[in-house]
Design goal:
The chain has 125 residues and is an alpha+beta fold. A three-stranded antiparallel beta sheet has the order 1-2-3, with helices on one face. Helix content is 44%, strand content 28%. The chain has one domain. It has two helices and three strands.
C-alpha cells in the first residue's frame, strides 16, 4: 500500500500565518476603541445616577471630567460632552470619532454615539 503524505505545506502554512497575523494586528487596533466606548457609556451612566447631577450642567461636566481621570480615557475630552435640555430632564450626548493608523496611509475610523438621560429632581433613575 502506498502511503500519501497529508497535512499543510510550508507555503500554505505561511499564507495562513500571514492572515492570522494581519487579523490579530487589526484586532489590536480596533478592540481598544470599543473598550474606550464602553467605558464612556459606563461613565455617562455613573454621572446620570449621581444625585449631584440634577444640580446643573456645570456639575455634570465636573463629574464627567472626574470620571475621565479615573478611567484613563485618553482620547476623550470633557468638552466633547453635550448636555441638552429635554422635557424630562437633561440628556447627555457623546458623539465622537476615533482614528487609528493601520498601516502606511490606511486608517481605521470608528464613529461612536452614546447618550444617557438625567431626570430632573431625582438625580438619576
Amino acid at each position: 500500500m502506498k502511503k500519501t503524505q497529508r497535512g499543510i505545506t510550508m507555503i500554505g502554512f505561511l499564507i495562513t500565518l500571514c492572515f492570522v497575523i494581519f487579523f490579530a494586528y487589526c484586532a489590536m487596533k480596533i478592540v481598544p476603541m470599543y473598550i474606550e466606548y464602553y467605558s464612556v457609556k459606563k461613565m455617562l451612566a455613573t454621572v446620570a445616577n449621581n444625585p449631584e447631577a440634577a444640580s446643573g450642567k456645570e456639575k455634570i461636566r465636573e463629574l464627567f471630567s472626574r470620571s475621565l481621570q479615573i478611567d484613563y480615557a485618553n482620547h476623550i475630552k470633557p468638552d466633547m460632552l453635550k448636555v441638552e435640555n429635554t422635557d424630562g430632564g437633561l440628556k447627555l450626548v457623546m458623539d465622537y470619532e476615533r482614528r487609528e493608523e493601520l498601516m502606511a496611509n490606511l486608517d481605521v475610523v470608528g464613529k461612536f454615539h452614546a447618550e444617557q438621560m438625567v431626570t430632573r429632581g431625582a438625580g438619576g433613575n
